[in-house]
Amino acid sequence: MESLNTPLGTALVTGASSGIGAVYADRLAQRGYNLLLVARDQARLEALATRLRSAFGVQVEVLPADLTAKADVARIEQRLRSDATITLLVNNAGIASNGKLAESDIDSVDAMVQLNVVTLTRLAAAALAGFVPRGRGILVNIASVVALFPENFNASYSATKAYVLSLSQSLHAEASPSGVQVQAVLPGVTRTEIWERSGMELAQLPPEMVMDAGAMVDAALVGMDQHELVTIPSLPDAADWQALGNARAKLQPNLSRSQPASRYLPAAATV
């Protein structure tokens, strides 16, 4: 029997028809969240919704949408802004790219930037417009470890994920005083369909680099419960991330000064 109300509220999950998004839907339903599931593949969404309703007795609404289409994005934004039952947004929908930028189909790159950056930003803004006044809500943005090592992967995809990390850090500073939680999740290589869709061969990578989507999401949810701003599921020692943060903090006082550093002064000026 469906539960019409839950103290946890409703979680909206994008890219929910497969992979990481489908696992988030499963795990959040297990926790007692009602669900709004967003993806293009309506048949897959309906099958997932039927299973989750039966297994966990939660409300599951299917919202078919192409999140590269402005009208569909606007419809999801409006739902986020108007539905006060929504307490959690998992901004998961995304696509990857393969190969060198100069050799890429630039229209495909444009579509990736639209989904990974523009749509994610619009949905985050719409969610926070409701969360912040209510002083309650969780925004989860799925980034990637390539945000930290862009030279090791496709340039344009890495750049989109660096944007997601930066946006999440800024939004945390904006929204956390009101009681709203922001989390950026940085998975490593995760076993999902994104690899096939981008033309990359997952089988070519060492097995020890590849994490199952279930294990990744379970780790990310533990990080969410611990109120981590940045969760890197495969990182053994959290002190390594903290050290990077400390190094960044050390840079901050010297990133904007009235004079150039001495090493950039013309040679005559140093005599």
Q: Find the CATH superfamily.
A: NAD(P)-binding Rossmann-like Domain
Number of domains: 1
Biggest sheet statistics: 7 strands, parallel
Q: Give me the Rg, rounded.
A: 20 Å
Poorly predicted sequence stretches spanning 5 or more consecutive residues: none
Protein name: Short-subunit dehydrogenase
Pfam families: adh_short
Organism: Rhodoferax ferrireducens
Family: Belongs to the short-chain dehydrogenases/reductases (SDR) family.
Features of the shown structure:
alpha/beta; Rossmann fold; seven-stranded parallel sheet; two-stranded parallel sheet; 14% strand; globular
Structure description:
The chain has 271 residues and is an alpha/beta fold. It has one domain: NAD(P)-binding Rossmann-like Domain (Rossmann fold, 3-Layer(aba) Sandwich). 45% of the residues lie in helices and 14% in strands. The protein has 8 helices and 9 strands. The protein has a 7-stranded parallel β-sheet with strand order 3-2-1-4-5-6-9, sandwiched between helices. Helix 1 crosses helix 7 (213-225) and helix 3 (70-82) packs parallel to helix 4. The longest helix is centred in the middle third of the chain and has 29 residues, at 106-134. The termini are far apart. The model has no long low-confidence stretch (mean pLDDT 92).
